[in-house]
Amino acid sequence: MSHIQVKNLSVHYDDCCALNDVNFEAKKGEFVAIVGKSGSGKTTFLHALANFIPFSGQVTIPKTVGVVFQQYAVFPWFTASENIAFGLENYNSEKQQQIIQEHLKLAELEDKKDKYPGELSGGQVQRVALARSLAHNPEVLLMDEPYGALDAYTREKMQQWLLDVWMTCKKTIVFVTHNIEEAMFLADRVLVLSNKRFIKELKVPFARPRQEEVKFTPEFNELRKEILRSINSAV
Ligand code: ADP
Ligand code: MG
Q1: Which ligand 1 atom lies nearest to the CA of residue 40?
Q2: Whether residue 36 sits in one domain with residue 147
Q3: What is the pTM of this model?
Q4: Are the beta carbons of 184 and 223 closer than 8 angstroms?
Q5: Where in the sequence is the domain holding 99, given as residue range(s)?
Q6: Which pLDDT belongs to residue 37?
Q7: Residue 91 lies in a domain
Q8: Which of 32, 57, 106, 174 could bridge to 9 as Cys pair (CB 3.0-4.6 Å)?
Q9: Which of 104, 137, 170 is the last residue in one of the domains?
Q10: φ and ψ at residue 126, rounded to 5 degrees
Q11: How far, CA to CA in Å, does 177 sit from each of 31, 41, 69, 108?
């Protein structure tokens, strides 16, 4: 049974059509990555899933959705703990504290809990952002180029960390990136967005848990070529 289902989704901005008749499905606990050139409609697709923008068609998605975007993912005027605490007012203070501690630990930021985002590294800020989303225990996580601003080394560490977190929490994740290697390393399936719709779907065959080494195998390289070809084949 699918956890997210999208049928005949179209999005128009003024007179520009950003997505045309898109279909999509994700199973519960699946990690799906979406790749595509800049302007291909990746962010638009996530915004439609999150119900942030008007669209036509049918989107069926669980009520509790967490989002992590590249920018504006945390409040700069709140500390790491306060960011995680944001929106948890419905819980009593004991429960709030428990959730905050648990997620600081998950984000490996227990010793940085009183620091503001400006005092943290890019990778640490993105860990706060994900912890903040996960604190609400969403069924689905939508991530839009969350590591786009990180240096290559930090980015790889964050990918590994995200996989560890996902293996533990088993959320359904839709992850947008223009980085093909990142998509292949993380996901069960990679979808290529082009010409306003998904033009290709590739299953990622690598066993889990995945280690960095998989990126240096001929199979990884072959799949990378296939995805790249498909992106480049589109006009
Ligand atoms: P991507 O995330 O893949 O780079 P976007 O979803 O941001 O692509 O954009 C898809 C298309 O929609 C682009 O042509 C972009 O210019 C257009 N677009 C995106 N947001 C808006 C907006 N708020 N108003 C008008 N056009 C937009
Ligand atoms: Mg985008």
Answers
A1: 3
A2: yes
A3: 0.96
A4: yes
A5: 76-137
A6: 94
A7: yes
A8: 57
A9: 137
A10: -70, -25
A11: 13, 12, 11, 24
- Locate all alpha helices (DSSP H) within the chain, ordered by sequence: 42-49, 80-85, 93-106, 122-134, 152-169, 180-186, 218-233
Q: What is the pLDDT, as a whole number, of residue 235?
A: 64
Residue 116 C-beta-side C-alpha neighbours within 13 Å = 5
Which residue in the block uniquely carries the two structure tokens 């800020």? 125
Token duo for residue 105 = 């630990």
Give, as residue ranges, everything with CB less than 5 Å from ion ligand 2.
Answer: 42-43
Q: How far is the CA of 146 from the centre of ligand 2 (A)?
A: 10
Q: What is the pLDDT of residue 72?
A: 62
As given in the structure block, the two tokens for residue 175 are 């992850």
Tokens found for residue 166? 């996902």
**How far is 150 from 71, CA to CA, in rounded Å?**
11
Q: What is the CATH number of the domain that holds 51?
A: 3.40.50.300
Same domain, 44 and 97: no
Minimum CA distance residue for ligand 1 atom 27: 13
- Structural domain tally of the chain? 2
